[in-house]
Amino acid sequence: MRRAVCPGSFDPITNGHLDIVARASRLYDVVHIAVMINKSKQGLFTVDERIALIEESVKDYGNVQVEAFHGLLVDYCKQRDIPAIVKGLRAVSDFDYELQMAQMNNGLSGVETLFIPTNPAYSFLSSSLVKEVAAWGGDISHLVPEVVLRELRQRLARP
Ligand code: PNS
Predict the structure, then answer these.
(1) What global pTM score does this model have?
(2) What is d(CA 97, CA 76) in angstroms, rounded to the nearest whole number?
(3) Which residues lie below 8 Å from residue 71, measured CB to CB, with a gap of 6+?
């Protein structure tokens, strides 16, 4: 069984994330989506809410599993026998930090990181920008799954 993990904060999942997960799911037998818990970062959605939004968004993919993890990504991989991390690269600006993390993770445990170039339609997309645009009433319907759109509209509705 060839396994890979797509890790992230997913606060919330966007169509950019989904595009990478879908492409990874065609390359691997099983793709794990790991919602990495960062207690020092206050999110808009709780970890359980993020997982529910992701599960609804990937419900038609047969080989994608979602779970939360508190700790190092390499430990997550070790515990589940996952040899590969899959990440999307949006632009050169992503590369510096992603390269550092990939090299650190490889040095810690030998896990490999595979980069998939983001679909250009999503190269500007991030969870933070989606939240900001949604908070000011901008149209994000083409940028997030339907279930996320509904939740964001409810949560960020201004009086
Ligand atoms: O969606 P994000 O916030 O850009 O994802 C970053 C994430 C969660 C993938 C990264 O911070 C991570 O791997 N965190 C887990 C803790 C860890 O392993 N840190 C060392 C990275 S070299």
Answers:
(1) 0.97
(2) 20
(3) none
Give domain 3-123's CATH number out of 3.40.50.10090, 3.40.50.620, 3.30.429.10, 1.20.1070.10: 3.40.50.620
158 catalytic residue (yes or no)? no
pLDDT tens-digit series, residues 55-101: 999 999 999 999 999 999 999 999 999 999 999 999 999 999 999 99
Catalytic residue among 32, 50, 87, 90: 90
Of the candidates 73, 129, 62, the one whose C-alpha atom is nearest the C-alpha of residue 101 is: 73
The atom number, within ligand 1, closest to the CA of 11 reads: 1
Strand spans (E) along 9-141: 30-36, 64-69, 84-89, 112-117
Active site residue 23: no
